[in-house]
Amino acid sequence: MLKVIAQDFIKPEAIEIVLPLYRELVEKTRQEELCISYELFIDQKDPGHFVFIEEWPDKAALDAHCNTGHFKRLVPMINAYQRQDCIITLIDAFA
Amino acid sequence: MLKVIAQDFIKPEAIEIVLPLYRELVEKTRQEELCISYELFIDQKDPGHFVFIEEWPDKAALDAHCNTGHFKRLVPMINAYQRQDCIITLIDAFA
User: Fold this and answer.
1) Which residues are CB-neighbours of B16 under 8 A, at least 6 positions away?
2) CA A11 remoteness from chain centre
3) Contact status of B59 with chain A (Cβ, < 8 Å)
C-alpha cells in the first residue's frame, strides 16, 4: 500500500480556472480500477494551495495513473498556472 | 470535519530516539475521545521527515488534543530534535 501527498501551488488569479480541471481529474481518477483513494483538499490559509491525499496498491499503480489520458491532458493544463513546483511525497505507514 | 497534515523534520542522528516518542504519541492520541483518525507516515526519501494525517471533528477538538498531557509532554521532547520547524496545514475537502 502506497500513500502519496501531492501539493500544488496555483497563482491566485488562476484559481477559478483550475477548479473545474481539478474536479474532472478527481472524478476520472476515482474511476481508475487501481485507485484506492484520491482526495483533494484546500489549505484553509491559502486558497491556491491544493493538497491531494492518495492511496494506491503500489508504485506501479501510481505510475499507471500518471500515464492515463486524463492525467496527461489535465495536469499540464493545471501546471500552466503554478506559482511554484508541486511537491510530491511518497510515504510509508509508521509502525 | 477537519483534516490536518503535520510534518516534522528530525535530525538524522536523532531518528532512533524519537521513534518510541512518536509511537506513544500515536497510541495515546488514538485513545482521545474526539480523535477520528491519527496516522503517522515516513517519507520514503527522507527517514527524518515524519508526516501525520489527522482527522478531527472541528478546530476545538484539535485544540483540545494540543492541550492533553501526552501532547504537552511528548511533543516538546520530539521537537528538541527538529532540524527545521514543523509545518502544520489545516485543509478542507474540495467539492
Assistant:
1) none
2) 16
3) no
- The answer to whether residues A86 and A8 touch, using CB atoms and an 8 Å cutoff, is yes
Q: How far is A69 from chain B (nearest CA, A)?
A: 22
For the stretch A39-49, pLDDT in tens is 999 999 999 99
Q: What is the pLDDT of residues B49-58, one digit of tens each?
A: 999 999 999 9
CATH of span A2-91: 3.30.70.100
Selected residue of A10, A25, A44, A46 to mutate for chain B interface (largest B Cβ count, 10 A): A44
In chain B, the residue whose alpha carbon lies closest to the alpha carbon of A59 is B44
Structure ipTM: 0.93
Q: What confidence score (pLDDT) does residue A68 get?
A: 98
